[in-house]
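Re-running the complex after MR caught last week's input typo. The corrected sequence lines follow. Everything else is unchanged.
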Amino acid sequence: MRKTKIAGTGSYIPDKVLTNADLEKMVDTSDEWISTRTGIKERRIADKNEAASDLAYKASKMAIEAAKIEPQDLDMIIVATITPDMIFPATACILQERLGMDKVASFDLEAACSGFLYGLSIGSQFIATRTYNTILVVAAETLSKIIDYEDRNTCIIFADGAGAAILRPSDDNSGIISSYLGADGEGANLVGVPAGGSRLPTSLETVKNRQHYMKMRGNELFKKAVKIMVRAVDVSLEKGGLTYEDVDFFIPHQANIRIIKAVAKRIGLGMDKVWVNLDQCGNMSAASCAVSLDQAVRQHKIKKGDKVVLTSFGGGLTWASLVIEW
Ligand code: UT7
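Corrected-run output:
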């Protein structure tokens, strides 16, 4: 079995900034409430003509350049998203055409906020088994398109962005040490979009009832998040034969600063070793860990040889944790 490394990363967040002050004018909320309860100050919102594949394209181009490869070198594309360009065809196929690539396997993966880590884990299996050599994993979200800007439970949190990584066989000791993926369908009703699928197809009625927008039982999710994330960290470290002391840098899903701080405390990590961008970027679902990884790499927060843990939690419920030696 071959070890898989991340050979390059990229990310893109849209130009348009939506601040807490802007939201104060839209719903009954305040900068004080949002800042203290979530840690978010502002978030980026896609243009009305910008779709998930547009964000994915920009992040992918950066990752391809960073990995010093050409689009033609790619053997597979995995796009993690809950906001695809359309129900089908897959956003990955639209991206493949846009990148001018060969006709390689391209598919979307839906694991909500855990999508990027699910994608890295799945992609790495093809490399480990020598099926493929070079895989693009992109997480791209345009959550603003499924948010009800009259619902203060969700509109203050979610945002748009994309992050990408190129997976290649490792030529040294670096690479993915272990991964752990999990899900609990009992929590499927805690966050999601009720209409637009085969259970409740879109109709005038569903639109009138605003069922094409995301609904979330945030407080119930909050209560589960810390426990699930800590367990995911534990299992991934254990699978890699490592302990908390071995962790040099932690990239958690960016849902809420209170969740991030509680997880960091439970695993004994100072906040100087924890990546936080939700103050500027909000919660970008699958794209949160992907954008975070690229920003941390580009800002030299991660050094060669560091043991980096990436952990996420989200709709489904799903969770995932990866340990990578950089
Ligand atoms: O991405 C993965 C999936 N999502 C998550 O992981 C989200 C996790 N959940 C959270 O981050 C938090 O639960 C929220 C930020 C969504 C909400 O924070 P909370 O501390 O759990 O608040 P709450 O829902 O328990 O509401 C507390 C109070 C309520 O008022 P009363 O009943 O105490 O009078 C709410 O009506 O805050 C009120 N409230 C707000 N007030 C001002 C709820 N949303 C707002 C708001 N502005 N935007």
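None of the earlier attempt is carried over here. The chain has a mean pLDDT of 97. Residues 29, 33, 37-38, 113, 152-153, 156, 191, 218-219, 221-222, 225, 255-256, 283, 314 surround oxa(dethia)-CoA (CB under 6 Å).
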